[in-house]
Specification:
The chain is an alpha+beta fold. The protein has a domain of 66 residues: Nucleoid-associated protein YbaB-like domain (Ybab, Chain: A), CATH 3.30.1310.10. It is built from four helices and three strands. β1 and β2 form a beta hairpin.
Length: 125
């Protein structure tokens, strides 16, 4: 195999790695925008969470204070946080699965995880 052919293969490989890196970065940007909202069956409580399950908003129907006791309200909030967190986790997995089908999602989405730390830096041959 000629030296020029080796360089062309190496250039092609670097190009493919750079394209995959860019796709993963775009996926990361999309993942940061994910959110999910869960609403209780009675419509009294809605909770919105972000991609890591962080609570972004809690909304109450104005009638809630006449219908639910404090303990019922608390239980409803916790339940909606759980539902929304599960929903956003499924959306995150769906977003990432095409690019990284066997990735251990639960291990990656811990606190302070950055996709960029797993990616090779773009380079040239």
């Amino acid at each position: 195999m000629a030296s020029n052919e080796h360089w062309r293969l190496l250039e092609q490989l670097v190009q493919e790695v750079n394209q995959q890196t860019e796709q993963l970065k775009q996926m990361q940007a999309s993942a940061k925008e994910l959110s999910a909202t869960a609403t209780s069956q009675d419509g009294m409580v809605s909770v919105t969470v972000g991609p890591r399950g962080e609570v972004r908003a809690i909304e109450f129907d104005p009638r809630i204070y006449r219908k639910l006791s404090p303990s019922e309200l608390s239980a409803s909030i916790v339940e909606q946080i759980r539902h929304a967190t599960l929903q956003v986790s499924r959306e995150m997995k769906e977003l990432m699965e095409p690019l990284v089908p066997n990735l251990p999602f639960e291990d990656l989405f811990g606190e302070e995880t950055s996709f960029e730390s797993f990616l090779p830096q773009p380079g040239t041959p």
